[in-house]
């Protein structure tokens, strides 16, 4: 296992920049539900596809702000966060046509990134009752350059919200033995042959939410029109009419696609999407709005760790790991794991390039058939985009999730010129458990402190010649002298 630390040069600059590089990441290590529930799109009704749900156990088919806040628990790491975070689940369809749930690795991370507008350092938390959707479940095509042009060259339709919405999706091919790809590098789900050959640690689904707000409406009829993306998706300028800058929300969810290596079949997102273009996510705010604003103003530790904000009450796994929503009677016995003959809700499997049928059209599709081999998939194959190491950011650049920075390596470890700035959820370290580790960083004087978090009792291979057994939830602190300052 090779773990590296971020250079002091980057962190020292961040201390000057302030909010521009500050963030916290909310770990939601357990699901609170896996079900066809989506109160934003299918209020008081069963959704047409299955979602992986994290957050308050007050979530339901007719949930709103008050219901979330009245929940008894949350599956996320901070007890004050009763928000609901949900995205479609991912399935594997084998050669027999049957569907099996792909497992998540490490739950979900929701980043709260503090990116103010360039001309105003103020930043707003989400108002009471705020909710929104990112992505479009019916999208099945991408008509822009692949890979993305440099942001300095974005012009014409690449400045429109339609492009920014699609550029806010990422499918990060994970292989911890190589230099990581950058966030939002690939806006489509690679085909299975590529996943088998390259993504040995699964795929990290990434989703950036809009952070520019009209300053008035907590929601809109389509849950999108009250917000907009800044000109560079994460950073940049807000468009006219949406000048109020909100805390920026970013989801990361890792799916263990490599568990199906060598098996004939295909991966399909729960909404019947083979391409990834229709990936989407929903957010329903469940914070006390005054508390959230206080957190936005004060939780600016550059480590991004919730433990470093004294406002937060950190939950133990015994609490967040046993927080579950109550299913409606219509879904109480529905199989959402498989193997099963159809996707939950039987949404049509559509690969485009035409716009898909949309929610509510389930039952008329081909999800009960064997995977298509030449027709729909061949008509709109996803592009080929090989692994590309994330750009090593200069010390003047702003942090983004999954970004790659110049790094100082561990004492005695093999030299490395770059590493993931934040390792969000590393691979299971034992074939017998679902254990994982994550790495965080903080600074003290001229020292970078590297903290390795072990979530349960596991044996970790430290190098090719040594192993170490670590107790549950123990902090291991390593120090690295600053370089080049």
Topology:
Elements: E1 4-6, H1 8-17, E2 23-28, E3 33-35, E4 51-55, H2 65-69, E5 84-88, E6 90-94, E7 99-101, E8 104-113, E9 131-135, H3 161-167, E10 169-173, H4 192-198, E11 203-208, E12 212-213, E13 227-228, E14 244-245, E15 248-255, E16 265-269, E17 280-284, H5 289-298, H6 317-320, H7 376-379, E18 392-393, E19 404-409, E20 418-420, E21 437-444, E22 447-454, E23 458-461, E24 467-470, E25 475-481
Parallel strand pairs: 18-19
Antiparallel strand pairs: 1-19, 2-8, 3-4, 4-5, 5-17, 6-7, 6-16, 8-15, 9-17, 10-11, 11-15, 12-13, 12-14, 19-20, 21-22, 22-25, 23-24
Structural description of this entry:
The chain is mostly beta strands and 485 residues long. It has 2 domains: 20-379, no CATH class; 392-481, no CATH class. Helices cover 10% and strands 25% of the residues. It is built from 7 helices and 25 strands. The radius of gyration is 21 Å and the shape is globular. Mean pLDDT is 78; it is low at 1-18, 360-378 and 404-485.
């Amino acid at each position: 296992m090779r773990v590296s630390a971020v250079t002091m040069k980057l962190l020292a600059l961040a201390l000057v920049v302030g909010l521009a590089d500050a963030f916290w990441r909310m770990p939601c290590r357990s699901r609170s539900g896996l079900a066809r529930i989506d109160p934003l799109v299918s209020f008081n009704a069963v959704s047409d596809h299955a979602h992986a749900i994290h957050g308050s156990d007050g979530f339901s088919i007719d949930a709103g702000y008050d219901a979330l806040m009245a929940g008894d628990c949350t599956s996320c790491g901070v007890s004050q966060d009763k928000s609901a975070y949900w995205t479609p689940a991912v399935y594997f369809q084998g050669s027999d046509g049957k569907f099996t749930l792909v497992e998540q690795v490490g739950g979900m991370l929701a980043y709260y990134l503090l990116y103010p507008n360039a001309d105003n350092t103020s930043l707003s938390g989400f108002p009471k009752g705020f909710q929104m959707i990112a992505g479009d479940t019916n999208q099945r095509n991408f008509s822009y350059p692949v890979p993305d042009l440099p942001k300095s060259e974005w012009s014409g339709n690449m400045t429109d919200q339609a492009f920014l919405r699609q550029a806010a999706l990422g499918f990060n091919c994970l292989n911890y033995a190589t230099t990581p790809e950058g966030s939002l590098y690939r806006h489509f789900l690679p085909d299975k042959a590529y996943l088998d050959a390259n993504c040995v640690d699964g795929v990290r689904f990434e989703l950036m939410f809009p952070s520019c707000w009209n300053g008035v409406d907590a929601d809109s009829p389509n849950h999108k029109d009250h917000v907009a993306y800044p000109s560079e998706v994460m950073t940049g300028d807000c468009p006219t009419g949406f000048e109020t800058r909100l805390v920026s929300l970013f989801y990361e969810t890792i799916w263990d696609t490599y568990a199906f290596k060598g098996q004939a079949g295909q991966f399909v997102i729960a909404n019947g999407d083979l391409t990834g273009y229709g990936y989407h996510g929903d957010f329903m705010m469940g914070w006390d709005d005054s508390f959230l604003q206080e957190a936005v103003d004060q939780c600016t530790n550059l480590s991004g760790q919730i433990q470093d904000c004294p406002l937060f009450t950190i939950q133990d796994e015994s609490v967040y790991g046993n927080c579950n929503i109550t299913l409606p009677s219509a879904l109480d016995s529905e199989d959402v794991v498989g193997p099963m003959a159809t996707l939950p809700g039987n949404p049509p499997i559509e690969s485009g390039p035409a716009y898909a049928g949309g929610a509510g059209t389930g039952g008329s599709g081909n999800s009960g058939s064997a995977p298509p081999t030449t027709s729909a998939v061949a008509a709109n194959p996803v592009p080929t985009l090989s692994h590309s190491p994330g750009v090593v950011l200069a010390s003047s650049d702003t942090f983004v999730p999954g970004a790659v920075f110049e790094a100082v390596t561990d004492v005695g470890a093999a030299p490395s010129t770059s590493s993931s700035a934040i390792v969000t959820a590393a691979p299971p370290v034992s074939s017998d458990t679902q254990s994982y580790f994550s790495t965080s960083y903080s600074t003290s004087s001229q020292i970078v402190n590297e903290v390795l978090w072990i979530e349960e009792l596991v044996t970790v291979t430290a190098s090719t010649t040594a192993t170490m057994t670590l107790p549950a939830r123990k902090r291991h602190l390593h120090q690295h002298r600053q370089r080049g300052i």
